[in-house]
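Saturday, quiet lab. Running sequence design on the structure tokens for the scaffold JK sent over.
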């Protein structure tokens, strides 16, 4: 007998750098203590393929190590940082065709605090000399610089070549690249002091050369990109310049090879900085030219005062160039300038991540698109591009989520071809958008907190799990075709979220095929029954049309009223009332009473593919049909007899008289007069035997008890 892995369901950790999307299409993200591997563009839509185990605490940050020239860059390793104070390097074993066969090749030890950010080289060409440069930032107030060298197929040698003390100015983001047209590494560090520190490597050590001011809050994300010229010089300018004058002297000319640094901050703003080489003939007049540019591009005092009020502390809008001198490998000294290029305003809340669109081919040549993706807690992602006519950076595209109890996006990234963008949010769920094409992006999903219980329905057609994330999630197979080969495939997905609660869910059991009972950190057991929309959608996704005969007597759907904990059933007459109300002035008040997110269309919609997160949050609830009372404290466990007649449950026992098992009649939902008494401490598990003749209970008093079912002869 062979056992194979069919499906993995897990959510992404709620951290800003917990997700990375590699050049070869593989995505990696932190999933509790593990690193999950996921192919978002998999033609079979299999979701998470594997998890890498090794960390002993939460994974805080994940990224890929790249090597190669221009578009030939490949992912050679995954780097993960954790609250266990270590970072780990994972690499794929050579000669193994399995895309998910990765092993831990090195453990980076030395930090005394949680590793919160990782920086790796991102450049037009990353030299493949058998070595890799990376940096880790930690809550211990240090940044460590590491050099990785491959030993064999399973081991790497990683050496800490430098430790940078930053004190209480904790690093929140790190980005590494090469200075324009050189192989000299440059590192940018965003910190809790609201500044961006610039380091340049000299004699194999990073020296701090500059501190960039401007942001008014923590700098949460940094990303480098190398500018490529499209035949002519391209001019970009700060959007704040567009309201002053149309004079071309306000433009900052970008040359081929210039390095662009984008920074995103909790002050809601995005800044772009330009790093470029300065010729010796120009360096003598650089300060004078910089002052002239600043003077000509100055805002009026009224507008500057307005922007200062927006940032609450004085906006740093200076376009003055900062000059740095760097000694190259040839012992030649070269001068570079760092200048503020653009200020991007548009988000209404913290900007958590920014990400340049990956390079592509244009007219057969390497091209870096001037396209920047930002993700924010205002529930939106924006794609920024310079206007073709003026060069002003504008919000070209905006996507996001509507409704649900979410707190925006923690991160977002472009796919390797630039046609897809993927984000993840507070619920650990992924969201996918595409620019063109007919493909349907079915994102991975799963619990983002500990799973406390799960159970199959009596026919083993689907299963439901409950978690400390206060949800019950339903999973079933989806029969469809492979987008590439056209072959028939069956993959598992989350297709419904029957319960979204206000208490941590602890236990669940089915009393029949369409009814389950769940217990949470409250004194009440809740009973849920499947609506018509779920039965129809399950039949459509699984191809089992025989279950449609059981849908007619059920409510159409369910809705969770504002400030409520009980899912209310919605019937056909409610749908008719909602449609009629849309044509009256009472529509808004009717919506507030009947539905917070559901619409007549969504309530009767039959799914043809697994739903997106927004649909799961609002349109897949099951109606709550009963509440079972009797317990005095939070529920611990529940089980149903196989014949569906009895429900057994237990709660936390603060006193011996609460350490009992209570029985409920599944026909009347009434409690039996006498509970089952045997234990003195909390009963942690109850289970009916296959024939329902016996009921087994186990307790924290180190005893287990067996109760026998005896039919009443009367």
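Result came back. Writing it out in full:
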């Amino acid at each position: 007998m062979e056992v194979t892995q069919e499906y993995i369901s897990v959510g992404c950790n709620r951290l800003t750098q917990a997700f990375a999307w590699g050049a070869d299409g593989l995505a990696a993200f932190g999933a509790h203590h593990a690193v999950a591997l996921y192919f978002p563009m998999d033609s079979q839509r299999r979701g998470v393929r594997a998890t890498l185990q090794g960390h002993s605490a939460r994974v805080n940050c994940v990224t890929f190590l790249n090597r190669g020239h221009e578009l030939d860059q490949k992912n050679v390793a995954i780097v993960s940082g954790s609250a266990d104070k270590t970072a780990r390097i994972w690499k794929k074993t050579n000669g193994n065709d399995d895309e998910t066969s990765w092993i831990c090749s090195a453990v980076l030890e030395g930090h005394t605090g949680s590793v919160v950010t990782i920086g790796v080289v991102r450049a037009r060409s990353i030299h493949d000399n058998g070595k890799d440069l990376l940096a880790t930032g930690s809550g211990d107030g240090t940044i460590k610089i590491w050099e990785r060298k491959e030993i064999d197929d399973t081991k790497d040698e990683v050496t800490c070549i430098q430790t940078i003390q930053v004190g209480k100015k904790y690093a929140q983001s790190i980005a590494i690249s090469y200075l324009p047209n050189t192989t000299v590494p440059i590192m940018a560090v965003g910190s809790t002091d609201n500044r961006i520190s610039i380091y340049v490597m000299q004699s194999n050590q990073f020296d701090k050369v500059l501190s960039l001011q401007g942001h008014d809050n923590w700098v949460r994300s940094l990303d480098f990109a190398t500018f490529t010229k499209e035949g002519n010089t391209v001019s970009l300018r700060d959007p704040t310049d567009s309201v002053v004058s149309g004079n071309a002297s306000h433009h900052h000319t970008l040359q081929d090879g210039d390095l662009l640094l984008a920074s995103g901050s909790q002050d809601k703003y995005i800044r772009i900085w330009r790093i470029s080489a300065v010729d010796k003939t120009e360096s003598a007049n650089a300060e004078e030219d910089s002052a002239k540019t600043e003077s000509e591009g100055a805002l009026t005092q009224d507008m500057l005062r307005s922007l200062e009020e927006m940032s609450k502390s004085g906006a740093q809008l200076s376009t003055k160039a900062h000059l740095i001198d760097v000694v190259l490998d040839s012992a030649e000294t070269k001068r570079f300038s760092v200048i503020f290029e653009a200020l991007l305003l548009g988000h209404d809340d913290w900007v958590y991540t920014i990400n340049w669109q990956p390079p592509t081919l244009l007219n057969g040549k390497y091209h870096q698109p001037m396209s920047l993706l930002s993700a924010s807690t205002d529930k939106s992602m924006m794609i920024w591009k310079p206007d073709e006519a003026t060069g002003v950076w504008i919000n070209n595209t905006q996507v996001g989520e509507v409704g649900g109890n979410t707190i925006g996006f923690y991160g977002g990234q472009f796919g390797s071809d630039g046609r897809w963008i993927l984000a993840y949010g507070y619920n650990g769920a992924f969201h996918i958008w595409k620019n063109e094409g007919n493909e349907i992006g079915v994102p991975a999903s799963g619990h983002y907190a500990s799973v406390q219980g799960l159970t199959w329905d009596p026919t083993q057609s689907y299963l439901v799990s409950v978690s400390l994330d206060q949800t019950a999630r339903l999973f079933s197979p989806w029969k469809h075709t492979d987008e590439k080969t056209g072959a028939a495939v069956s993959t598992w997905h989350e297709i419904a979220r029957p319960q979204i609660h206000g208490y941590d869910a602890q236990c669940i059991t089915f009393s029949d095929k369409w009814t389950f009972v769940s217990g949470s950190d409250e004194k009440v057991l809740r009973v849920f029954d499947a609506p018509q929309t779920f039965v129809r959608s399950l039949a459509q996704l699984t191809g089992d049309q025989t279950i449609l005969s059981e849908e007619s007597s059920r409510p159409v759907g369910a809705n969770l009223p504002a400030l409520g904990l009980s899912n209310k059933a919605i019937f056909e007459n409610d749908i008719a009332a909602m449609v009629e109300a849309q044509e009256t002035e009472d529509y808004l008040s009717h919506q507030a009473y009947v539905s917070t997110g559901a619409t007549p269309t969504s309530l009767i919609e039959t799914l043809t593919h697994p739903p997106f997160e927004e649909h799961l949050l609002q349109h897949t609830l099951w109606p709550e049909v009963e509440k079972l009372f009797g317990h005095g404290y939070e529920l611990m466990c529940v089980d149903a007899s196989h014949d569906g007649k009895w429900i057994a449950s237990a709660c936390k026992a603060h006193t011996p008289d609460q350490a009992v098992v209570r029985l409920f009649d599944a026909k009347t939902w009434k409690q039996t007069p006498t509970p089952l008494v045997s234990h003195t401490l909390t009963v942690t598990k109850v289970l009916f035997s296959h024939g329902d003749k016996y009921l087994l209970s186990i307790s924290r008093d180190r005893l287990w008890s067996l109760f026998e079912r005896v039919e009443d002869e009367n």
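Notes for JK: The CA atoms of residues 284 and 378 lie 46 Å apart. The chain has a mean pLDDT of 85. Ask whether to fix the surface positions before the next round.
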